Amino acid sequence: MSENFNVVYLGSDGFPVGLAEIQKIKLVSKSLIEVGGSVTVISRNAVHAPSPSVTLKKSGKYGEIDYVFASGTPFKPKSFVKRNLLKVWGAINEVFIIRRLNRKKKIDFAIVSSKRFGILLLYRFLSKLLGFKVLLNFAEYNSELRKEKGKKKSLNDSLFEKYGFNYVDGVIPISELLLNFVRKNAPNKPCLKIPVLCDFDKFEQSDEKQNEQYFLFCGAPNFELISFILNAYDTLNNHSDVHLYLVVNGPAAAQKKLKSCITKIKNADKVRTFSKLPYPQLVSLYSNAMGLLIPLRPTLRDIARFPHKIGEYTASGNPIVTTNVGEVKNYFEDEQSALIAENYDEIEFAKKMNFILEHPDRARKIGEGGKTVGLENFDYRIYGEKIKSFVISLP
Fold first, then answer.
1. What superfamily would CATH give domain 200-377?
2. pTM
């Protein structure tokens, strides 16, 4: 592979608009561009609802990253027939786009961000035909996610988790559990662990101040976790002037349920909710929080994953309150770089929140320790050269 190299991102739809998966694509792409790469992200399907807030073309640039929607549009039609015709066209046109890209500027490797076994086989076929390597981004234990939702393990999950690693040249797992899962199912498959990533520069630009003292949780509308946080907050020793901010995106039904959950606690009047915030405003909320909350449950799913928010939390320089589950124990130390409840328990979690109220100076130092951990492990700039060297080393 030459000093200047070309990468294509495949298997994820919607770029450059989206949450954790899209954010990681952006950061990995930026890291590769900084070491001489050019990156094109191909979205097969139109996934965005038409909205004044989403102004996308069928192809363009996000910073230095090229992107294209194989469907010909980023916006999904209301018509059922048109939507499915676009899916068929997107699948066909994606192949043509990959072929044209390879002719224009030889593709050195592709990063696949998909858990669909059939699509993985297609990308493997194209890689053999056109002569590029394939890396698989492995960020979630899909069958455990289905089990958590009360669904049975699908045929796709079985095929992907047992055989999928045999159809790529290397794997990029996000956690130790997923790394060990690959080693169990494909013992000789090269792996490069890449944890949650963050652009720390964006947090240096925040100087807006908030008028209230508050703890903050930012995440999906997972009401088990939200109820856990609300109950922990409600048991704090002294929080007459301390608020709880919940940044939770989701449809109207989820927002209604969130409001209902809040009414069940005695300090409901001190809870503030936010949704679909502009990123600079979200950074400001992180940067002014007393503590940033992210409880993880002792489930295989939470042990396997690594929430994107942890990286952003460290960048704020404020103390993280979490539980001793999964990747937390591999990076953080209690009362040194985070406040870590040993068990997934509301009372234990509340004690760690109380620590911040009772020891504000020590809490600030713990936040600084967390930021150091983040800069050493989660800064996207660390990984460009590592990925490049990893690809060169692949047989």
1. Glycogen Phosphorylase B; (3.40.50.2000)
2. 0.92
